[in-house]
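Q: How would the structure tokens look for this protein?
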Amino acid sequence: MTRPGIVKGVVPYEGGCRFAVWAPHADEVYVVGSFNDWNKDAHPLARQPDGVWSADVPRATPGDEYRFRLIAQGQELSRIDPYARRVTTSVGNAIITPPVSRKRADAFTPVPLNEMVIYELHIGTFGKKTAQHGPGNLEGAIERLDHLAELGVNALEVMPLAEFAGGFSWGYNPAQMFAVESDYGTPRTFKDFVDEAHSRGIAVIVDVVYNHMGPSDLGLWQFDGWNENGKGGIYFYNDWRAQTPWGETRPDYGRKEVREYLRDNALMWVRDYGVDGLRWDATAYIRNAQGHDNDPESDLPDGWSLMQWINAEMRKASTTACSIAEDLLSNPFLTKAVKEGGAGFNAQWDSQFVHPLRAALCAPEDASRNIDAVRDAILHRYYLNAFERVIYTESHDEVANGKARVPEEVDPGHASSWAAKKKSALGAAIVLTAPGIPMIFQGQEFLEDDWFHDQDPLDWSKKKRFSGMFRLYQDLIALRLNQRGNTAGLCAQEVAVYHVNNEHKVLAYHRWGRGGRGDSVVVVANFSADPQQAYRLGFPSDGRWLVRFNSDSKFYDKDFGDVGPAEVIASAPFQDGLPSSGTLTVAPYSVLILSQAKE
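A: Here is the predicted structure in token form.
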């Protein structure tokens, strides 16, 4: 174990700093920097029995730049501090930076998962200002937080912002895992971003990458000169387990110091920056060398136990922080409790929702739309808790790498056509009324087109151009969160898809918690180009059911038809296994949301 009191990295104190670095195969270690005029020999570090080298350096102060100089097997190596909180660039120098302190004294508590609506964003494109050189940054993103508050989301997921090579990237190539990407801003700026989001009632979830590192600008590679088989050295596997789709840079999950490194990174985001959760990238490649499920020959038990350990440690650090896995293999043990052998995540991205729904939305012909598959997508869950899954039609993966935004997929080159707008709205309504944690991807709310790439900033002029679509998302989110007091069932567990008509491409489902007025919600969706007129459906009870949302309203787009009722009177006879029934008209590619008024 590391000697008590020694924290790896740099710890400023009054009059100087303590430096510590893990380099078990080094023969000598020095810290060099602006505080000693980069003198190679001025400040040697002392070796501890566990391979950690440390020293106190008077007059080293925050803002000074530094590096570690290692002598190992006759080599002289210059390395950035693996624990550096700030760097000049991914290949530059570390900067002495104390942990950020909270500016705001008021506590923030995120909403529970059943009330969470997530907005995924990429700082480099979301935070880009007009005519700004280089990528967008955290200051620009802070200026856009009012937009998210106006939209109504209450959580945002930030794509990885650990230091990566260059200035443009999705962020899934971390070079310095503890440092905030220098082109985005400073640690203080990111803390301000979190505080500003919290002040608007918005939780912050950070995307972390523990399935691989780099591979470019990777200072951890053969960090202290040692390696086996020509591979990465002390931070990495040095055998077949090193191989990932992104290079031979899988961390050694079985090595205590590497496990601590990843654990410390996760806790940094939660403790120092006050973020409300982590979303883990590609967990299938942490638990299995090939990213497979039920493949014992390639399983990585140390990766599984690492996820369990970090999730448990996170809960000790914050009782409200959530942990979300992007696994996409529908393994229910990801979200099972650690004490029951699970990995301990709160939720996971649900591939069994997004793929069937996108297929139904984007199919060129109505006959190809599989309503049975949509039903199964709505009903899917891992165990009893519907809110163990994140559901969406767009994410950074679903709108790139050969795929595009839903409107673009529907009508390539004409993403603002009637069909593209209608089907985009249809998909949004399903996402925000199905059981699960809904997530939208940046720009979806104003019909952003094309595909996502890191040098194409959001076109904010579309918010005004497609203001009706923005209102549509606002209304759906308000209904999802029961802000008008008549759709409580959308935050509850229960769902019954009670009507599936593959001939006419109509689907209806009932959402409820306690049931009854103000709680029960009926959602009717038409996945065809034909209006369904005088269409009879079952209803959970007799009486007057008011249409709370009609995606065909001209309020959302002047090209829409305003087809559909304002209310439905339900009465005998029973139908679809429900005690009442009523008739309604549903416009092409449209959704109606109905509930009964409280009396």
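The domain at 9-79 is CATH 2.60.40.10 (Immunoglobulin-like).

Residues 301-317 form the longest helix (17 residues).

Upvote if useful.
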